[in-house]
Specification:
The protein has one helix and 32 strands. It has about 300 residues and is mainly beta. The radius of gyration is 24 Å and the shape is elongated.
Length: about 300
């Protein structure tokens, strides 16, 4: 009898099916208990459905909203999705007091929610991004790592705004920090606003036509490489400072940059590079760039500088 019972235990341990991990109830997942690894399987003890709550023995689903906050326990949360992207709804770490490590295992993050990335606030925290790609797919979602306590170690990472349809407006709130690459897909109905009192630094910026790019006036975006923009008469790109009262928005780069079928207003280009735009429109108060109007019409509108 004992032998049969022992064989039953062996069967139960090694052969019985393992139940699937449940998703967080209600679409909300809060990290708890500090240092750990996010891997979608062994991290079931680190998730709760309320802030600071008990473990739900569950893992986030692809549409769940992820929160690291003051009740998460600090420490380091290391993402290890076996090289795959971690797909979530929205991602917030505003009041977290630890480190989010995407770099060690080169894991990226796709955010499909309407809010995107939230990392504001004064809490001392770090996000290490490595070589990963962080994609924001909603036409209304933002990237926000502007918090005074937020340290961004960008590495060679890419922040990609990928929505090609849908209005609403998206914002990049950088908090005056250094980033890798930022890209924005073509979207005729939407734009990307580099907003706030943020003198950011980028390895590269890539904009695809048609698109509207809005910059905060009197703020400087310093860029190592601005990739050339090629639009068309029906798919232009607009570069615009957001305030005629507060002065021009500034883009500073030492590399040469050209744009075809673009429009400019309240923009200042500087930094040693040569900036030129063909088949393009000078709406008002631009400097540091040579703008050549379309041969079949158009031209300088407004005062221009």
């Amino acid at each position: 009898m004992k032998k049969l019972f022992g064989l039953f235990l062996l069967w139960f341990v090694f052969l019985a099916p393992i139940p699937a991990k449940a998703a967080c109830a209600g679409g909300a997942c809060f990290w708890i208990l500090g240092t750990g690894t996010v891997d979608g399987t062994l991290d079931i003890g680190h998730w709760a459905i309320t802030t600071g709550g008990g473990s739900c023995a569950c893992v986030p689903a692809a549409t769940d909203n992820i929160t690291f906050d003051a009740n998460s326990g600090g420490g380091t949360a290391t993402v290890n999705m076996a090289g795959a992207l971690w797909t979530v709804g929205n991602f917030t770490f505003t009041n977290f007091t630890g480190t989010l490590d995407f770099a060690t295992n080169s894991n990226g993050l796709t955010m499909n929610g309407s809010s995107g990335m939230g990392g504001g606030g004064a809490a001392a925290k770090t996000i290490t991004m490595g070589s990963a790609t962080f994609s924001i797919t909603s036409a209304t979602a933002n990237w926000d790592t502007s918090g005074s306590g937020t340290t961004v170690t960008a590495g060679t990472s890419t922040i990609a705004f990928t929505a090609t349809t849908g209005a609403g407006g998206r914002r990049f709130l950088g908090g005056g920090k250094t980033y890798g690459n930022v890209t924005a897909a073509a979207n005729a109905d939407n734009g990307l606003f580099f907003s706030g009192a943020n003198n950011n630094t980028f390895a590269s910026l890539t904009f695809n036509a048609p698109l509207t790019i809005l910059f905060s006036s009197n703020q400087t975006q310093t860029v190592t490489t601005i990739n050339n923009v090629t639009g068309a008469s029906i798919t232009p790109v607009l570069f615009q400072g957001d305030s005629i009262i507060n002065g021009r928005a500034i883009v500073s780069s030492a590399n040469n940059w050209s744009c075809e079928w673009c429009a400019f207003t309240q923009m200042q280009f500087q930094g040693g590079g040569t900036f030129s735009a063909t088949n393009s429109l000078d709406f008002n108060n631009n400097t540091g760039i040579t703008i050549t109007p379309p041969s079949a019409g158009g031209g300088i509108i407004g005062s221009g500088i």
